[in-house]
Amino acid sequence: MSPSSSGPDSGKLPPSRPGSTGSAADARGTAKRSKASPRAAGPRTGKAATKRAASIKPPPVLVRQVRGAVVESVHRGSIVQVDVDGTVRRMLGDPDVLVNLRSAVKPFGLVAFVEAGGVEAFDLSTAELAIMAGSHSGEDLHVRTLQAVFRRSGISQQMLGCGSEGAPLDALTAARLSRDGEKAGALRHMCSGQHTSILLLCKINDWPVEEYWRPDHPVQHLYAATIARAFSTSAALLVTSTDACGVPTYAFPLREVARAFALLADPSAVRPADSRSSLVVALTRIRDAMIANPEMVAGTRDRLDTSVMKAAPGRTVAKGGAEGLRGFAILPGSGSGRFRQSGVAIKIEDGGGFDRAAGAASVETLRQIGVLEPAALRALARYHRPVLRDPRGEPAAEAIAEFDLAPLSELL
Fold it and tell me: How many other β-carbons are positioned within 10 Å of the β-carbon of residue 73?
């Protein structure tokens, strides 16, 4: 469905209603509120968070699902782009909305394993390191990669505690397993790479591998301390809950997520006095492994993280989390803008609308900040304007991302 076609089924957006879009006026107002208050040092909790949530207006509409001339549904959300020092460059909505990192935590938590000498201890390839930082699709490529690690480690893959719920993510692999009567095991779960790194970290430190997922296990204490370092806080102040795969997850304001991804973009850019400077070597190694092996970060088919990194090689590292959270590390010199490194974080308020909203908003954001050249944008068209088709394969509806993410310097 093309926005330039005519007639009642054209897919053109109906006239905007007041307050329904991410307008420049909204951004100016948010920018003024942000400038008036210092960068959040950590997430707000309890009564303060409840009071704040009640006082702010809903975030702007980022994506509309359009069928014919009718907007069937809308997806609101917030976007923030920051420098490594936390300076906000662009934003829409609420940069301080509290979000669970979920799988977006993986590149940062993996630092603990790298710093412990895990790459050398288990002779890992860059592909094996990348899958530990990713959320893979459970394809045979991913299973073989992790099986090789387990063979060298001497740990049984039966110790994996991530389960197999929803695995594999790859539809073709799932169809083949169903046809052959094969039940997916834990290795096909999207988080098995992360869990493998935690098991190996237990072995390095001579900690028990049983029940490694419990918050009071020493490996989880180390993991939490590492996350705290990446976010310039202390483990005692972390806001935690349990992720779908059974390990702890951590919550931060959206701008802090973007700031962490700015660090991932160019770890060496932090000042020596910055407490995060101790992460430079390990985080650079993880970033480079992800860039070199994008198919290990997600999958070979229809996964946004992999597709973005392949469409713009060497320009961005993409890592999403559940419930409509996306993180992008924009490398220095990326795209036509030739700007310094930054981090982008996007949160879709309703959790993502079957992923269509997160994908459309992500590609549109990267387009507006200058990361995607025309060829890359064409390669990502299926995420940028995802189309639903009728039984005959004709376009019937599409998700349209429409918002203005202008630099704050142009709004203030």
Answer: 15
Pairing verdict, β 316-321 and 248-253:
unpaired
Q: How far apart are CA 217 and CA 236, in angstroms?
A: 15
Question: What amino acid occupies position 17?
Answer: R
Domain boundaries, the chain: 98-389
pLDDT for the residue numbered 47: 61
What DSSP designation does 273 have?
Answer: T
Residue 79 near residue 8 (C-beta atoms within 8 A): no
Percentage of the chain beyond pLDDT 90 is 81
**How many DSSP H helices and E strands does the chain contain?**
16, 11
Measured CA to CA, the distance from residue 407 to residue 398 in angstroms comes to 28
DSSP string, 57-88: PPPPEEEEEEETTEEEEEEEEEEEEE-TT--E
Out of 14-18, 309-313, 351-355, which region has the weakest mean confidence (pLDDT)? 14-18
Through-space distance between the first and last CA atoms of the chain, rounded to whole angstroms: 37
Q: How far is CA 227 from CA 115, 176, 239, in A?
A: 13, 38, 11
Query: What does the DSSP assignment read for 283-342?
Result: HHHHHHHHHH-HHHHS-SSS-HHHHHHHHSTTTEEEEEETTTEEEEEE-TTBTTTTBPPE
Per-residue pLDDT at 29: 43
Asked whether 404 and 27 are in contact (CB, 8 A), the reply is: yes
- Two tokens, residue 52: 């704040």
Cis peptide upstream of residue 60 (ω within 30 degrees of 0): no
Q: Side-chain half-sphere of 174: how many Cα atoms within 13 Å?
A: 12
Q: Where residue 377 falls among pLDDT bands split at 50, 70, 90?
A: very high
Q: How many CA atoms lie within 13 A of 187 on its CB side?
A: 16
